[in-house]
Amino acid sequence: MTTDDTAEVLPTCYLDRLDGRIAYDIEGDGPLVVLVPGMGDLRATYRFCAPALREAGYRVACTDLRGHGDSDVTFVSYGDVETASDITALVDHLGGPAVVVGNSMGAGSAALASAERPDLVVGLVLIGPFVRDPRANPAMRVGMRLAMARPWVTTVWKAYLPKLYAGRRPADFDQYRDRVVASLRRPGYARAFSRTTRLSHAPVEARLADVKAPALVVMGALDPDFPDPKAEAEWIARTLRADVVMVPEAGHYPQSQRPDVTVDAVVRFVETAQRRA
Question: In CATH, what class is 13-276?
Answer without folding.
Answer: alpha beta
